[in-house]
Specification:
The chain is built from two helices and six strands. The strands form three sheets. Strands 1-2 form a two-stranded antiparallel sheet. The chain has a two-stranded antiparallel sheet with strand order 3-6. A two-stranded antiparallel ribbon has the order 4-5. The chain is elongated and about 50 Å long. By secondary structure, it is mainly beta. Helices cover 10% and strands 25% of the residues. The mean pLDDT is 89.
Length: 102
């Protein structure tokens, strides 16, 4: 049996007594109304953008063959998800971990 892990949360104290490590996997079939991890519903890898880590260097813009990344006039990075096919080209060139595949 195999699966795709998209997050590991250490020292978790929520949802029960004690301290534990929680492993989040892709492809959850439950569809809970209170889901705290909707990114885990799809079993397919997804591209995540972490704006706090982005320095606006533009490497992802040059690398993306689909034009999914752009900088606004004020230098803010925007990921246009409707253009993104999660090919990973931007992930390979981002030296700061602002674009990752989960």
């Amino acid at each position: 049996m195999t699966g795709l892990i998209f997050d590991i949360q250490r020292f978790s104290i929520h949802d029960g007594p004690g301290i534990r490590t929680t492993v989040f996997m892709k492809g959850c079939p439950l569809r809970c109304l209170w889901c705290h991890n909707p990114e885990g519903i799809s079993a397919e890898p997804m591209l995540s953008f972490l704006p706090d880590k982005c320095i606006g260097c533009g490497a992802c813009i040059e690398a993306c063959p689909h034009g999914a990344h752009r900088l606004t006039e004020d230098g803010r990075h925007v990921l246009e998800r409707e253009r993104c096919v999660a090919c990973g080209a931007c992930v390979e060139v981002c030296k700061f971990g602002a674009v990752i595949v989960e």
